[in-house]
Amino acid sequence: MKRIRIGVDVDGVLYRWSDTARWILHHAFGYNLGDSTSWHYLKSQVKPAHWDWLWRTGVEVYGLFRHGNLYPGSVEGMKELSRLGDIVVITMRPRNAMTDTLAWLSYHQLPVDELHVLDHGRKSSVQPHCDVYIDDSPDVYEDLTANTSGVVLLWDRPWNQDVPVRHKRPWEPGGTRVSSWDEVIEQVRLTAWERCL
Fold first, then answer.
1. What is the pTM of this model?
2. Which CATH code is given to the segment(s) 4-15+70-195?
3. Domain ranges in the chain?
4. Among residues 109, 163, 164, 170, which one has the fewest Cβ atoms lying within 10 Å of its Cβ?
5. What pLDDT does residue 6 have?
């Protein structure tokens, strides 16, 4: 049976990026920021110079992309996904985060068959396309549903609540909102079954 390709995002799906960014901004500048309720929440709450600092010094000295925590269940979820198909990690990160990205994935021993770290562009540019994508970004959701035939699982987060999900059945083009690894595994199994018939 042909193995399906499963595209997995890192920040907001596996890695608690916004928690780490809030912690660094608090310790460096004293910000007491609440939970992110929109995609650009953190950026809108800090001074532009501090936001720029986060992407330079915060990455290179404080380890913005190296030292943060996983979301609960991510290791187990990724291991189960690796039984169902080939895991293609596709993440958007700045160039100065490449080494930390590799170190973070290696430290957590996440099963990865392919890795794409993009500093610009669209995730739909990664070829061949995946059968399933798991992401939390509203913009990436729109890109993947418009430009691939893959099923897009939008991980339910406070910052993507205004994204309309187009389809509920995993074998149709479009997307499904998920909020747990159990739901992700179920949707990937259904997609694998449909696409391998």
1. 0.93
2. 3.40.50.1000
3. 4-15+70-195, 17-60
4. 164
5. 98
